[in-house]
# Entry
Amino acid sequence: MNLHIALAKIYCQGNEVFSKEKRTLGMIHHLSIEADNPMKVATVLAKLMGGRAREGFPFKDACGAFSGDEYGTMIECWPRGKVATIPKSGPGKFETSDSEVLQNHQAFHTAISVQLDDDEIMEIARDAGWQTAVRGGNAPFSLVEVWIENRLLLEVLSPTQTENYLRVMT
# Structure
């Protein structure tokens, strides 16, 4: 499985982001999202990525969707309203707290590349009861919008879409 988080390839050289000369590669290995049903979301995301879901990671009520790729790519699914906080007990201790505000939508979204075609991506998402749409049409690249729990945007790229995305963005 060769999954890459499409936004994870960050090319920088001085102030010239996206410079093709002497570029350095950075990688996002995991990210965290909120979910009303963390295990269901982790299971669906793992299916999209060709990986597996695990309960209780990174803490009791959270779940992880592991891609199984060589980069350790993973999406943590936290219970909705759970947030990371600066440790009160000092550095090195992971702490969480409950937010007083639950957001239906947020600016955060990400794009992932998978080894599935558009129809397979949309079938998996629709089986979960999530809305989907193919976006891009005549643009330089297209993608499948997957609305996790019908509130959080995940952009999913097939292998062909990933090639087009990387040609335009790098």
